[in-house]
Amino acid sequence: MSPAPQTVSDHIFSETVSSQNRGLLYGDGLFETIRFRSGQLLLWEPHRQRLLSGCDALGIDLDHAYLDSLIPEIIASAPSTDCILKVIVTRGTGGRGYSPPSPNRPTVLFQWHALAADIINNTRMGIDVIFCRHPLSVNPVTAGIKHLNRLDQVLASRELSACAVHTPTVREGLMLDVDSNLIEGTRSNVFVVIQNQLCTPELTRCGVDGVMRNRLIELFASQGVEVVVRAIRHRELTQGSEAFLCNSVFGVWPILRLIDVHAGEEPHEFRATTMARMAQQWLRDDFPL
210: how many CB neighbours lie within 10 A of its CB? Predict the structure, then answer.
């Protein structure tokens, strides 16, 4: 259920992308990954806003009305009632050299993907995580933007895959910046309860400003639970009583154990899943348990 990408460029639909596309040559673009369920793109409006604000930040001239006009046809082409839509926007074609063309004519791509088979089981049972050795690159200018430069996540995911061969309960890797601050997972944001405070890492230097992360901050606030956004040193995670991951595809996954495969120490076990289970209940209509 992962056909060739459907590409939209100058109102022409195609299954190919030019070899001169700047997304291919330089990672010059952005993307969103959205859960599609029962005929709706979940959390579409915040995804849309992040995509458009990212285009503005990078100077990609995406016409907002044009993007909106494409969505009904894309939804109608969904291959199932519960799957994933990936929307990719690049600056378009440009030729040799880093300097972007002006004006630019963006390319928009849509890809449908099947859900991973283990999503529900991980939601119910929880997962183990590791610290990845590969760090996230620091760049405050692009921090928060979901741009196409994902090489850090690719290299960290190689570590995760190698670990999962021997320890299949490990389903995600946590990533640090170059100063050993906890930032996020390879494909998720992270929350930790430390000394009875629910915390999530600040993303002012690197990391993705996750749609689900922001939704959960709002939901917790509506229930009188403050989420403290701050720098979190990687060793603080082992002081936590609870931790969980989130993204807009799988919802919320409780973390059961943190396994440090490099230090050779005993895994840190998180005693509680209270906050994670609370969040799952709030989201249960769209992200079933």
Answer: 25
